[in-house]
Each structure stands twice: as C-alpha cells, then as structure tokens.
Design a protein that fits this description.
With 332 residues, the chain is an alpha/beta fold. Helix content is 29%, strand content 16%. It is globular, with a radius of gyration of 19 Å.
C-alpha cells in the first residue's frame, strides 16, 4: 500500500539503500536480491547514464570508487577532471562509456576500510541496467508473492544535461512508461536532490516524487536556494506543489540527543511523507549516544536509531542493513 501523508499510519517502510550494501558491494543485482530476500519494502538504485543513453545503477557518475576501472589499461585514456555540481572530480565517468564498455567493468566495495567483509565480493558483479533491476524485482515478486517497490534516484541531472547532452528526466520517463510504472498507484518513488527535474517529472508522470534535502547546501540547479530554507514551513508548502514526500538527512530530523527536530510534523502538515536517510549499523554513521565500543567499523545500536525515527513520526528509512532494520521495525 502506498503511504501518503494524512492517511492512517501505515507500516514503516524499509528502503534498501543501494541494496543490502552493508553486506554486498552496492548497486549490484546481488545486493538488491539479498535486500529483497531480507524483507525490504523498496530497493533504491541510484541512476546515471551511459554515452549511448542507457540508465545504469551507480552511486556516482564517477566510476573509480565503485568499479575496477582504474586498473583497466584499455580505459586509461578516459580519465578526466570535471566540475560536477560545483566540485572538481577526477576519474572515469559513466557518460564517457558505452554500455558495452561499462559491462566489462566489475563492481567493488566503496568503503572497504569500514566493510572489509564486502571486499570479498570485489570483481564478481557487473554494473546493472535499470531494465535488469526492474526484471529482478518482477521475478522476485513472482517468486515471493509480495509487492516490492522501486525507489530510483536521478544523479546529477542538470550537470549531465548541460555537459553531456543527456536528459535524465526524459530517460526516466521513458523507462517508467516502458515498464508501466508511471501511475500514482505504482510501487515507485523517484527522488532527486534538485528541483526543476522533479517539477518536470511532475508534469510528465503520476509516479510519486521525493524531494531530497540535506543538512547543508542546496540543490545544484538552484544555487540561490538552501535546503535549510526548503524545510521551513513556506519551503515545505512549495515542495508539496510538485512532490509527495521529502527524503531527509537524519541530521535535520533528529537532534544530537535523538529528539525530533519537529521537521516530520511540519512536513506532514504540508501534506508530505517523510523518509529518512541513512540508517547504518557502523559507529561511524550513528549518533554518538548510540555508538558502541570498538571503533568506527563496530556495530552500534541500529535498532535504537530506528526506534527514534519511529517516535519522531517518520514514515520510512533508507538502510544499508536491511535484516537488522526489518527486525527492528517488525519487533512490535
């Protein structure tokens, strides 16, 4: 059941952040399938595009952090330095590769210092296309008899449009229509940190849309805007004219002590659902009161964080650790 603000309280949504990325290299079919098998309600693919206009799942358009491209001599001359959303980034970029070239790469763990066990799976999995992810979801729905949602994020749409001539909104709309996922009752959310891409999507599809907001900065396509202003009451009212929910940084939802900041209630008053990012078990990602002994990579009190989010009235959360989050949510 799609959960919208103002409706009776529905079950807290468990959104697999890049798949079961606490256990497998992120944005691989293996990570998505593991998350589904562990009970995730939605899986979240971050989408970038290839030179030949195919949507593929990577956390960033720069590839060296999550694939073996830097070790591939045949692609040494593809290394570039680009300014992406105001940041200079050096590396290899998906938009400079055809799908056939990209498919020769293999995924690797993005943060091996914190998740050394995941690095055992380096080199095993290719970069999946959005079409393959949809096919996986539908196969798993047939296998399990339950509905599984998709929660894609468009990465750097304005940069890609202005610098590579790639229209991520157009590609997303075409993909949603191709797979009959463009209606309001489809189990899909599309999320973006930017504003105008969401406004365009709102004019083109009925799919629920999510405005992402961070603790600092503002949308790359609107340099004068700040996320802090967007989550003020007037800003939330404006978001509600084109989106159905906000995807909010934990730091704007909870204080350092774990109390609600009141943003959830303000968003719901504006007619918006609230999804939090990101629940992770490692101490490095947890509020200080929920950390354990043992260093940054040691597991802390993930269930405690989930409880705080539920107490704050949040409707769901992105998580790297699906099984632990499912257990925490279903504990009642």
């Amino acid at each position: 059941m799609l959960m919208m603000a103002g409706a009776a309280q529905a079950e807290f949504l468990v959104i697999a952040h890049r798949g079961a990325s606490g256990e497998r290299p992120e944005h691989t079919l293996a990570a998505y399938e593991r998350a589904i098998d562990q009970g995730a309600d939605y899986i979240e693919p971050d989408l970038v595009a290839t030179k030949d206009l195919v949507l593929v799942a990577r956390h960033e358009n720069e590839l060296s952090g999550t694939t073996d491209v830097a070790s591939r001599e045949e692609f040494a001359d593809r290394r570039r330095t680009k300014e992406v959303d105001g940041q200079r980034v050096a590396g290899w970029f998906a938009e400079d590769f055809t799908l056939a070239e990209l498919r020769t790469l293999r995924a690797k763990e993005r943060i091996p210092s914190l998740r050394p066990a995941n690095a055992r799976f380096d080199g095993l999995y290719p970069v999946p296309t959005f079409d393959e992810i949809v096919a996986l979801v539908r196969a798993k729905e047939a296998e399990t008899g339950r509905r599984i949602g998709l929660y894609p994020e468009l990465k750097h749409p304005t940069f890609l449009l202005q610098n590579a001539g790639i229209d991520m909104v157009d590609l997303m709309v075409a993909a949603l229509r191709k797979h009959d996922l463009d209606d309001a009752d489809d189990r899909v959310f599309v999320q973006v940190f930017e504003v105008e891409p969401l406004r365009r999507l709102d004019r083109l599809v009925e799919t629920p849309l999510v405005q992402l907001v961070a603790a600092q900065g503002g949308p790359a396509d609107a340099p004068a805007m700040r996320y802090a202003d967007m989550i003020a009451p007037s800003g939330l009212a404006e978001i509600a004219t084109y989106a159905d929910a906000i995807g909010a940084d934990l730091r704007v939802l909870l204080t350092e002590s774990g109390a609600s900041t009141g943003l959830t209630q303000a968003a719901k008053a504006a007619g918006l659902d609230v999804h939090a990012w990101t629940v992770r078990r490692e101490n490095a990602f947890l509020p200080v009161p929920l950390r354990s002994a043992g260093g940054e990579g040691a597991p802390g009190d993930l269930a405690g964080l989930v409880a705080l989010l539920e107490q704050a009235g949040v409707d769901g959360a992105f998580t790297d650790n699906v099984i632990e989050t499912v257990r925490a949510v279903r504990a009642e």
